[in-house]
Amino acid sequence: MDLSERAAAGKEARARVSRSSHAAWDAPKDRADPVEILEQQATTRVPELLPIRYARMAVSPFTFYRGAAAVMAADLAATPTSGLEVQMCGDAHLSNFGVFAAPDRRLVFDLNDFDETLPGPWEWDVKRLAASFEIAARDNGFKRKDRRSAVETGVRAYREAMREFAKMRNLEIWYARLDAQEALESLQSERRKGVKKVEKAAAKARAKDSVRALDRLTERVDGKLRIASRPPLLVPIEELVADFAGDFDPEEAIQTVLKEYTDSMKGDRQHLLSEYRYRDLAHKVVGVGSVGTRAWIVLMTGRDDSDPLFLQAKEAGASVYEPYLGKSRFRNHGRRVVEGQWLMQAASDSFLGWCAGVEADGRPRDYYVRQLWDEKGSGDIESMRPRSLEIYAKGCGWTLARAHARSGDAVAIGAYLGSNAAFDDAIVEFADAYADQNERDHAELLAAIDSGRLEAVDA
């Protein structure tokens, strides 16, 4: 289709599904029990770690929301969609954006979590992002007008950015990215409050690399470099061997997995990885929503012990959206995550790849692999004030639009969104209503813990 036909398709979609229709959220009478959804997820997770997951989700409505992507997926499936699809992040809440070092070592701001990625409606990502701002702002004690302003800023940034991307050539969209240093310089030139916090966050991200991880996560055992033991959050493979059936040889197993992972990488990355040798492996508890999934860190060294590379192999199961959108076209869910990340990010980790492995229960699992720390950092949401959250929302909105424009039809989506605030206003209303729903769901989690239905343990 030519540009006029693509724009017409967006306007036709608007005629079928009005922008104002996105404001609605009314829980259906047959809505699934949110605690039951979490229990269903638990059947594929490490049982001993589930109490940690529930404890982290119980802290606040915001931490509950971070771990409840499956709950919202079921809810979003009942909401209106334009019929225009993109590669969804699937879990586009505000804490899944952050800074990291691109391969050219410039700090960029981008999405950084793709566990649930799948082709689907662009509106679902926007709604999950918008609701996260409302929920986080409530958590910070903001007044209603400040909460609405943050949500509106993020949605407006998405809409305006998508309409700008609709005017760009394909390569301009592909190379667009939000450079963290340029953004910092812009803030400095405007003398906005909070610049020192941004500078501090950038410096913290710069310091978070494999050399720092070497100092924080390793120790010498009989003169050999090993990952430190800090159960239950960090447990070396030597302490877990007894859990595996048969004659399990961790060295042999990891070499087999590393070969498959290496084969998934591009040729130059394969050569770079070949310069490192395997040293140790440990199980690590990560995140909020991810607690209970299998996650491993791999210590490798290059020229000597002062030249470390830490990789993280994280279990990838089916996306929580697959029951509503259909199965992924990729047989390995680790590849699903990596392919989605490559498509949505402007610059991705040089060590991204995927593999399969066998866990202690003897079942095969899919994994994606990335660097553990590569100058990564995220916003300190809890300390943000209203103006800071607005600035952050603007960056998130622009970034999500750029990610969607790389895989979807920016012309059609831009035409659907339009030049006025009709869509923005609708999503502000949705975010407010869904934040109420999230608070009710969080209360149900607390009740399930109090009754003994679920166990919660801090760690």
Spell out the key features of this protein.
single chain; alpha+beta; 2 domains; 6-stranded antiparallel beta sheet; 18 helices; 13 strands; 48% helix
Give the topology.
Elements: H1 3-16, H2 34-42, H3 50-58, H4 61-67, H5 69-76, E1 85-88, E2 97-101, E3 107-111, E4 118-121, H6 122-139, H7 144-165, H8 170-175, E5 178-179, H9 180-189, H10 195-207, H11 210-217, E6 218-221, E7 224-227, E8 234-236, H12 250-263, H13 267-274, E9 277-284, E10 295-301, E11 308-315, H14 322-325, H15 333-344, E12 353-358, E13 364-371, H16 386-407, H17 410-417, H18 422-451
Antiparallel strand pairs: 1-4, 2-3, 3-5, 6-7, 8-9, 9-10, 10-11, 11-13, 12-13
Helix pairs in contact: 1-17, 3-4, 4-6, 4-18, 6-7, 6-16, 6-18, 7-16, 7-17, 7-18, 9-10
Tell me the major beta sheet.
6 strands, antiparallel
* Total discrete domains: 2
Estimate what percentage of residues fall within beta strands.
5-15%
| Overall helicity | 40-55%
Number of helices: 18
Average pLDDT score: 90
- The main sheet orders its strands as 8-9-10-11-13-12
Please state the overall shape, judged from the principal axes of the Cα atoms. globular
- Return residue spans where pLDDT drops below 50 for at least 5 consecutive residues: none
Q: Roughly how many Å apart are the termini?
A: 55 Å
Report on the architecture of this protein:
The protein has helices at 3-16, 34-42, 50-58, 61-67, 69-76, 122-139, 144-165, 170-175, 180-189, 195-207, 210-217, 250-263, 267-274, 322-325, 333-344, 386-407, 410-417, 422-451; strands spanning 85-88, 97-101, 107-111, 118-121, 178-179, 218-221, 224-227, 234-236, 277-284, 295-301, 308-315, 353-358, 364-371. The chain is an alpha+beta fold. The protein has 2 domains: 3-205 and 380-451, no CATH class; 210-371, no CATH class. The strands form 4 sheets. Strands 8-9-10-11-13-12 form a 6-stranded antiparallel β-sheet, with helices on both faces. Helix 6 packs antiparallel against helix 7. It is globular and about 70 Å long. The N and C termini lie far apart (55 Å). The model has no long low-confidence stretch (mean pLDDT 90).
